[in-house]
Amino acid sequence: MFLRSRSVLWLLAVFALPVHAETFALAPLPYAYDALAPVIGADTMQIHHGRHHQAYVDNLNKAVAAEPGLANRSLEELIGNLAAVPETQRNAVRNNGGGHWNHTFFWASMTAPSASGAPAPELMAAIERDFGSFDAFKTAFNAAGASRFGSGWVWLVADSEGQLKIISTPNQDNPLMDIAPERGTPLLGNDVWEHAYYLNYQNRRPDYLAAWWQVVNWSAVSARFAALKP
Ligand SMILES: [Fe+2]
Questions:
Q1: Distance between Cα 7 and ligand 1 center (Å)
Q2: Which of 56, 107, 113, 164 would bridge with 130, disulfide CB 3.0–4.6 Å?
Q3: Host domain of residue 213
Q4: CATH number of domain containing 150
Q5: Which residues contact 177 (CB under 8 A, 6 or more apart)?
Q6: b/e map of 160-174 (b: 16 or more CB within 10 Å)?
Q7: How many CA atoms lie within 13 A of 200 on its CB side?
Q8: 197-210 pLDDT, tens per residue?
């Protein structure tokens, strides 16, 4: 009995020790690695999620650990107020915090081709109002993605007035960042880094952009749009 009590006390002591848990963690994909095939193959998804996204999470945790004042800030607080991040870690938080947010959003923006669906009627009406037609919207989105020099993202956002816009950002920047020239609430985003498509499309980014619509999760995008209502 004495020994058992001591064991319990020892266990309690161990678990009471300060634990330096990683602040941010990589969530599993919300579907199987091969769920988006043939639009995006399983090998691309495994490397993209397990290596690229994991590296952003790891490097963000290193940046946050290097500045104790950052410990309790959410990811949105960090990237939405980079001006408040000490200069020593600002670029690291910008690149890796952006990378973590963007990829988490990206995975949730896609689904199997059989489940892609279509924009809900209210979202479709807003797309037609602001871009003329659904096809015109997709053409403009693809053009913005194709013309992004180097690496970056293309976004559908809603501005503060509720108007829909297409924005392209370099590297891992996004429209939530205080440093972004144009800000807005992201509804949809596509990753146009080569790591997102090279194994399937090599240098043919326009082909990737055109095929990608087959895996857009319109149910998720429509829910984001519906959540904008006050
Ligand atoms: Fe990526």
A1: 47
A2: 164
A3: 113-226
A4: 3.55.40.20
A5: 79, 80, 82, 94, 98, 183
A6: eeeebebbbbeebbb
A7: 23
A8: 999 999 999 999 99
Indicate the DSSP class of residue 189. E
**pTM of the complete model beyond 0.70:** yes
Structural domain includes residue 24:
no
**45 CA to centre of ligand 1 in angstroms:** 10
pLDDT at 229: 82
Residue 207's SS3 state is helix
Compute the distance from residue 21 Cα to the ligand 1 centre, in Å.
25
Residue 209 included in any domain: yes
Could you give the 3-state DSSP secondary structure of residue 156? strand
- Which residue reads 């080569």 in tokens? 194
Ligand 1 centroid – CA 165 distance (Å):
22
Alpha carbon of 168 to ligand 1 centroid (Å): 14
